[in-house]
Specification:
alpha/beta, Spore Coat Polysaccharide Biosynthesis Protein SpsA, Chain A, 2 domains, 8-stranded mixed β-sheet, 3-stranded mixed β-sheet, 25 helices, 13 strands, about 50% helix, binds uridine-5'-diphosphate-glucose, binds manganese (II) ion
Length: about 750
C-alpha cells in the first residue's frame, strides 16, 4: 500500500444470524425430502386407487413447492448490508462531484395528477448537491399541456423552495409532504423559519389553486399561455398518441435571467420532454420514454450518473445522491458498480398493510440477499445508474471511472434554442429505426418489466449492482389502494418476469457463468412467480374437494409421515412470522400478507401465465396498465379502515370468490358430518386432519371475501354478478364431487 491508508467510501457487512438460519434451513430441507419420499412411496403402492390422479397432483405440487423453496434460499444464505461514509466523499471529492441527470416519468394526467408530479420534481431539485451539477428531466408520455403548465409553475416556485429547503435542511423536500409533516409534528421552533414557512406555504397554496383550476377546466389560463412561448409547441398537437416532440428547457444557466433562485444561486436545470408519438410507431411505454431521455440528456447535460424515479416517488432524503456516489466513487470497488438501487417505499401504506404493498420481505430480505450474490434487480424507481452501463457498455477489467473531463463538453457553445432543436430530433419516433436502442442500448423493449430485464442484461455484461436501504427512507411513492389495482400490477410484474425466463436473457438457462448461481436462483424466484399459480390453485381446490369424498391426501396424525409435514408447516409458519416481525411488520400485517400472497397466486399469476402463452402464439400483446395514484374519497376512507376494496366485476375477482365459496361449502359439509356423522364417514378428523385444517385455513383467510359477497352494502363490496357467478360455479364443483 502507498503512504495513505485506503479508507473506503462504503462498507459491506454480512448479516448476523446466519449461523442460526443455516441449520434450520437444512433441517427443513430434510423434512421436505421426507415429504417427497412419502409422496413417491405412496403413489407406487396401490392403496389409494380411487384418488390416484389426485395423488399424482399432490406429488407434483409438493415437488414444485419444495423446489421453489430451495430457490428462495438464495436470498437467505448470505445477506449483506451497506453503509456509506458521506464525509469522506465530500472531503475527497466535493470539488469534483460528477453531474447527475434525474429522470422523472409520467404518462397520464388523470391518474397521475400534475400536483403530485411537480412535488416529485421539486423534491429532487432540492437534493443536498451542487445545483449546477444537477439536471432534472420530466418525461410526459401524455404530452399534457396542463402538466407542462404545472412544471412551469414549479420552475418559478423552485426559486423559493430550493433555497428554503437547503437553508433549513428541510426533510422531506417534497413541499406537499413537508407541509403534511408540519401539520402533524408542529411548526419549527426557529422563528425566522416559521415566518418564511408561512410565506412559502402561501406561495405553494396559490400555485396549487392555479394548477387545480387549470386541471378542472382542462385549459391553461390565457395570461400564462401568452407569457411563455413554450405553449406554441401544442399548436400542431393532435392527440396524446399523435404529436411532434415537445421539448422545453425551463431553467438553464444559459438563460441567466431565469436560472437563479431568489438568493441569486444557480438552480438545477429543468427540462420538459414529451417525445414524439405517432400511431404508426409503437412507443414501448416507459422504456421508450427512458431511452428518449437518455439521448436528449446526453445532448443537454450528459451527466455521468442518472437517477430514475416514477412520478409518484418523491425524494424523502436529501442525502441520497451523495449516498449513491459513495458507491460509484469508491476507489476500489466503484468502477465495477453499474447501478445503486434503493428500496421502493410507500407513503400511503396503512398499519397492517392490507394489500401487502410495502413488499416488506422483498425490501428487507430478498434484496440484501441478492446484494450478497452480485447485486439486486433494477426495479424502475429509486435507482442510480452509471450512464455508460445503462447505455449498453460491457464491463471489462480495464474499465475505470473517469470523473474528470466534464468541462470540455460539446454542448458548451450551442444556444438554448439550438440545444432544444437538436434534442427534439433525438426524441423523434424514427430516430430509433435501425439502431440498437431497445436491444443493446438503453432500456430493453418488449417486456412489461423493462426495468428488471435491463438490470439483468447489465449484470450479464459483467457489472455489479448495489442495494442501499438507508435508515431514513430515500424515496416514498404511492402503493395501489384497491385489490384489483394490486392484482393488475402483479399481473404485469409476474407476466414480465415470466417473459424474461423465456427470453434470451433467461437467468435459468442463459445465465450460467454470466451471473452467479445465487443470482440465477434469485432471479428465478421472480421469473417463476407466475407458474406458481398451478400448484397453489391445486392446493386450494383439490384437498378440499377430496374431503367430500373422504379420500385422504395427507398422512394420518398417528403415522410417522405426519412428522415432516408438521415440521415444515410449523417451522415455515413460525419462521415467516419471525422474519416479518423482524422487518417491522405486525401480526395482522403478516396475516394480510399471507392472504395477498394467496390472491396473487390464484388470480394475477394465473392470468399472467395465460397471457404469456397467448403471447407466445402471437394471439395477444402485453400492455402496461398504469397504476392509478388517485383514490375516490369514500374508497380512500375504507382504505384507511383497512377494509378490502373489490370494486367492479372482473374475471380475477370471480376466481377468488369462487375459490372462497367452494372452500366454504366443503368446510360446512365437513362440519355437518362432524355433527351428524355418516356411518361410513367416521374419523374424518383423524385420518384427514391436515386436509380439514387446510380447508379451515382457506375459509379463515377468505373472511374478507365472504363479507364482500354477503355482508357489505358499500360500493367497495363484491358486485352481485360476481356473487352469483361464484356461487353457481362453486356449487357445480361441489355437487359434482359429492355425488359423482
Ligand atoms: O407508457 C408509459 C407507462 C408508464 N410510464 C411511467 O412509468 C412509471 C411506472 O408506472 P406505474 O404504473 O406506477 O407502475 P408500477 O408498477 O408502480 O411501477 C414499477 O414497475 C414498472 C415496471 O412494471 C416500472 O417501470 C416502474 O419504474 C416500477 O416502479 C410511472 O411513472 C409512469 O408514468 C411511462 O412513462 N410511460
Ligand atoms: Mn407506481
Amino acid at each position: 500500500m502507498g503512504s495513505i491508508e485506503y479508507s473506503p467510501l462504503f462498507e459491506t457487512r454480512r448479516a448476523r444470524g446466519r449461523v442460526l438460519y443455516r441449520p434450520f434451513a437444512i433441517s427443513l430441507f430434510v423434512a421436505i425430502c421426507f415429504i417427497w419420499l412419502y409422496r413417491f412411496s405412496h403413489i407406487i403402492g396401490t392403496k389409494y386407487e380411487n384418488g390416484k390422479w389426485a395423488w399424482l397432483g399432490m406429488l407434483a405440487a409438493d415437488l414444485w413447492f419444495g423446489f421453489y423453496w430451495l430457490l428462495t434460499q438464495a436470498f437467505r444464505w448470505n445477506p449483506v448490508f451497506r453503509e456509506t461514509f458521506k464525509n469522506r466523499l465530500s472531503q475527497r471529492y466535493e470539488k469534483k462531484l460528477p453531474r447527475v441527470d434525474i429522470f422523472v416519468c409520467t404518462a397520464d394526467p388523470e391518474i397521475e395528477p400534475a400536483m403530485m408530479v411537480i412535488n416529485t420534481v421539486l423534491s429532487v431539485m432540492a437534493y443536498d448537491y451542487p445545483s449546477e451539477k444537477m439536471s432534472v428531466y420530466l418525461s410526459d408520455d401524455a404530452g399534457s399541456e396542463i402538466t407542462f403548465y404545472a412544471l412551469l409553475e414549479a420552475s418559478n416556485f423552485a426559486k423559493h423552495w430550493v433555497p428554503f429547503s437547503k437553508r433549513f435542511r428541510v426533510e422531506p423536500t417534497s413541499p406537499a409532504a413537508y407541509f403534511k409533516t408540519i401539520v402533524s409534528s408542529g411548526y419549527p421552533i426557529n422563528s425566522t423559519q416559521t415566518q418564511e414557512l408561512v410565506a412559502i406555504k402561501k406561495l405553494y397554496d396559490e400555485m396549487e389553486k392555479r394548477i387545480e383550476n387549470a386541471t378542472k377546466v382542462g385549459e391553461v389560463p390565457k395570461e400564462a399561455r401568452l407569457k411563455n412561448k413554450g405553449f406554441s409547441e401544442w399548436d400542431s398537437y393532435i392527440s396524446r398518441r399523435d404529436h411532434d416532440s415537445i421539448l422545453q428547457i425551463l431553467l438553464h444557466r444559459k438563460n441567466p435571467n431565469n436560472s437563479k433562485d431568489v438568493d441569486g444561486c444557480e438552480l438545477p436545470a429543468l427540462i420538459y420532454l414529451a417525445r414524439e408519438k405517432r400511431p404508426q410507431y409503437f412507443h414501448n411505454f416507459k422504456a421508450g420514454a427512458m431511452n428518449s431521455l437518455l439521448r436528449v440528456s446526453s445532448n443537454i447535460s450528459n451527466g455521468k450518473i442518472i437517477l430514475n424515479v416514477d412520478c409518484d416517488m418523491y425524494s424523502n432524503n436529501p442525502q441520497s445522491v451523495r449516498d449513491a456516489l459513495c458507491f460509484f466513487m469508491d476507489e476500489e470497488q466503484g468502477h465495477e458498480i453499474a447501478y445503486v438501487q434503493f428500496p421502493q417505499n410507500f407513503e400511503n401504506v396503512t398499519k397492517n398493510d392490507l394489500y401487502g404493498s410495502s413488499l416488506i420481505s422483498i425490501a428487507e430480505v430478498d434484496f440484501p440477499g441478492l446484494d450478497g450474490c452480485g447485486g439486486p434487480l433494477y426495479i424502475g424507481s429509486g435507482c442510480f445508474h452509471k450512464r455508460d452501463s445503462l447505455c449498453g457498455m460491457k464491463f471489462s477489467d480495464q474499465y475505470r471511472n473517469d470523473w474528470n473531463g466534464e468541462e470540455d463538453d460539446h454542448f458548451k457553445e450551442a444556444s438554448l434554442e439550438e440545444l432544444e432543436e437538436q434534442s427534439k430530433a433525438l426524441a423523434s419516433c424514427s430516430y430509433e429505426e435501425n439502431t440498437l436502442w431497445g436491444k443493446e442500448m438503453g432500456l430493453k423493449y418488449g417486456c412489461p418489466v423493462e426495468d428488471v430485464i435491463t438490470g439483468l442484461s447489465i449484470q450479464r455484461q459483467g457489472w455489479k449492482s448495489v442495494y442501499y436501504n438507508p435508515p431514513r427512507k430515500a424515496f416514498l411513492g404511492l402503493a395501489p389502494t384497491t385489490l384489483p389495482q394490486t392484482l393488475v400490477q402483479h399481473k404485469r410484474w409476474s407476466e414480465g418476469d415470466l417473459q424474461i425466463l423465456l427470453s434470451k436473457y433467461s437467468p435459468a438457462w442463459h445465465g450460467f457463468r454470466r451471473i452467479s448461481l445465487g443470482l440465477q436462483m434469485g432471479y428465478c424466484v421472480y421469473c417463476l412467480w407466475a407458474p406458481n399459480c398451478l400448484a397453489t390453485l391445486y392446493y386450494s381446490i383439490m384437498p378440499s374437494l377430496y374431503l367430500l369424498r373422504g379420500v385422504p391426501l395427507f398422512p394420518e396424525i398417528s403415522s410417522p409421515w405426519f412428522i415432516p409435514f408438521a415440521y415444515v408447516i410449523i417451522g415455515e409458519t413460525t419462521y415467516s412470522l419471525l422474519e416479518f416481525f423482524f422487518c417491522g411488520g405486525t401480526f395482522k400485517g403478516w396475516w394480510n400478507d399471507l392472504r395477498i400472497w394467496l390472491y396473487k397466486r390464484t388470480s394475477s399469476y394465473l392470468f399472467a401465465c395465460i397471457d404469456t402463452i397467448l403471447k407466445l402464439f402471437g394471439i395477444s400483446n402485453s400492455t402496461f396498465v398504469i397504476t392509478a395514484k388517485v383514490t375516490e374519497e369514500d374508497a380512500s376512507k375504507r382504505y384507511e379502515k383497512e377494509m378490502m376494496e373489490f370494486g367492479a366485476s372482473s374475471p380475477m375477482l370471480t376466481i377468488l370468490a369462487t375459490l372462497a365459496v367452494l372452500n366454504l361449502f366443503c368446510f360446512l359439509s365437513v362440519l355437518k358430518d362432524a355433527v351428524f356423522p355418516r356411518e361410513s364417514g367416521v374419523g374424518v378428523y383423524e385420518s384427514m386432519v391436515l386436509q380439514v385444517l387446510l380447508c379451515g385455513f382457506l375459509v379463515l383467510i377468505n373472511l374478507p371475501i365472504y363479507q364482500g359477497l354477503f355482508l357489505r352494502r358499500d360500493n367497495g363490496r363484491l358486485p352481485s354478478s360476481v356473487a352469483v357467478k361464484s356461487i353457481v360455479l362453486a356449487l357445480a364443483a361441489f355437487i359434482s364431487f359429492s355425488f359423482a
